[in-house]
Every structure is written in structure tokens, then in C-alpha cells.
Recover the amino acids of this structure.
């Protein structure tokens, strides 16, 4: 542990505010819709590719600005990104990614949208949340027997 | 953050509701879903499957419970999900994220084109 990670913990309220913002964005862009995910996997519309692609462009600009300005976190920690050349894909990315994709195709929602759908009144998604937690727990049980790079 | 997203979606539903009862999804998608026997178009999700009564049917259970389980398992195993890999990871040009995103699509395309016709 470095000196920085032993300091004051980051405050939690920004996560809540950003979560509220993300919930609004998820609903207004319709990306939490099972129908939109079906449309994406059938290549019938640019909609989802536009939203995700737009987010990558904004994200890349954010990463560039954070690296350029050396801006710090609220508690003064430096923000470190992995160097792209150090991010070799391992079996966990190929296999884990494919398993995630199978779930995404069925459920039509990834982890964040599960919360937003509960907020939007699709109460049965609470069952999907419990199932996702069970999946994460099962990964913890099997971790040592699964291939990792 | 999860709590925030629940609140954000509630705020949107109450104060910024969408005027559309049926989302402007591509007609080709509606046709493809109708061919699978899925007729309901209203709302964010097909309510015949994503409801308490839908959960007790085999297709509804597979979509919600098996789908949810795989999303949770896969996100932990791949060390990230759509936001972590497809958006944050690709924003930093990480090759591992590109591999994960290729996996996301391999899985999603398999389900959409080969598995859904069998279970719906």
C-alpha cells in the first residue's frame, strides 16, 4: 500500500450525484430498454452505437484532459490510468466478456440499467439484481479454477 | 451509485416522463420480434416477460434470472461491464477492453439470433 491509498477515503456523495445523473441519462436515451438492445444486436438502428460511441468520444476527451492537466481527486490523490500497451487481453476478457454478452442479450440490461429499471418501476428487475449478485458471488467461489491471464 | 441510478430513474419517470408510450424502435426490430411471437410494444421492456407473471413462465425466468446471473458472473470475470470496458476502457484505448467488448457482442449476437428463437 502506498502512502496515498492509506489517506482519507474519498467522499461518497459524488457517486450518489453521478448516479442520479446517469439514471436520468439512461432513461432519456432509452438505452435501458430491452427493445433497444434487441435493435442493437440486430443492427437495425444506429441509436445504441451513437449513444455508446458518443460516450467513448467524451470519455476519451476526459482521459486526455485528466492526463494533460494532472487534475487530482477530491482528497488530492493522483489519477492513474493503465498504459494501453500494458493491457494485454487475457482469457478472462474473452471468456468473461462472452458470458456477460450472453446475459446482456437475454436480460437486455447491464448492471447499471438494472438499477435504473427498478427506479423506472419495472419492479421485477429486483429479481434480476439478486440473480446478478448471485452470479458475482458464484464467480468468487469459482475464481481459482477459472483461466485468467 | 446504484442508489443514485434508482433515484435518477424515479426522478425522470415522475418529472421528465417521455411522451411516447411505445419507443420509436426500428420497424425491422418490431417485425423480427413479432415473428418470435412477441407482440407487446409498450414501455421499456416487453411486459409479458418482464413482470411478476412473466417471471413464472420459462422464457421470462430464463431472460430475468439466467440473464441476470450471467451478467453478474460475466461482469466480475471480465473485470468490467459496458461502462467499464466499452466506454471507460475504450476511452483509454485498452486492448483488454476491446477483447471484452468483442466478447460482449459475440455473446449478445449468439443469444439474439440463435437462442431467442428457441426460448421465446
Amino acid at each position: 500500500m502506498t502512502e496515498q491509498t492509506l489517506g482519507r477515503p474519498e467522499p461518497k456523495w459524488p457517486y450518489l450525484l453521478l448516479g442520479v445523473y446517469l439514471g436520468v441519462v439512461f432513461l432519456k436515451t432509452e438505452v435501458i430498454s430491452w427493445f433497444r438492445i434487441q435493435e442493437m444486436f440486430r443492427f437495425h438502428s444506429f441509436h445504441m452505437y451513437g449513444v455508446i460511441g458518443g460516450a467513448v468520444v467524451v470519455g476519451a476527451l476526459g482521459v486526455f484532459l485528466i492526463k494533460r492537466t494532472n487534475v487530482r481527486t477530491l482528497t488530492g490523490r493522483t489519477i492513474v490510468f493503465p498504459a494501453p500497451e500494458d493491457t494485454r487481453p487475457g482469457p478472462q476478457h474473452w471468456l468473461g466478456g462472452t458470458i456477460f454478452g450472453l446475459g446482456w442479450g437475454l436480460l437486455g440490461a447491464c448492471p447499471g440499467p438494472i438499477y435504473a429499471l427498478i427506479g423506472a418501476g419495472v419492479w421485477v428487475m429486483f429479481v434480476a439484481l439478486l440473480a446478478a449478485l448471485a452470479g458475482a458471488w458464484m464467480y468468487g467461489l469459482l475464481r481459482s479454477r477459472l483461466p485468467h491471464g | 451509485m446504484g442508489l443514485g441510478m434508482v433515484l435518477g430513474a424515479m426522478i425522470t419517470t415522475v418529472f421528465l416522463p417521455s411522451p411516447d408510450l411505445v419507443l420509436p424502435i426500428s420497424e425491422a426490430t418490431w417485425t423480427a420480434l413479432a415473428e418470435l411471437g412477441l407482440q407487446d410494444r409498450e414501455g421499456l421492456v416487453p411486459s409479458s416477460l418482464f413482470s411478476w407473471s412473466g417471471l413464472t413462465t420459462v422464457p421470462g425466468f430464463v431472460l430475468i434470472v439466467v440473464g441476470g446471473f450471467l451478467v453478474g458472473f460475466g461482469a466480475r470475470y471480465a473485470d468490467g461491464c459496458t461502462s467499464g470496458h466499452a466506454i471507460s476502457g475504450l476511452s483509454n484505448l485498452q486492448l483488454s477492453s476491446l477483447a471484452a467488448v468483442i466478447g460482449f457482442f459475440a455473446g449478445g449476437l449468439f443469444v439474439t439470433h440463435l437462442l431467442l428463437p428457441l426460448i421465446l
Summary: Chain A has two domains: 1-81, 88-149. Chain A has a mean pLDDT of 93. Chain A touches chain B through 90 residues (CB under 8 Å). The two ends of chain A are 23 Å apart (CA to CA).
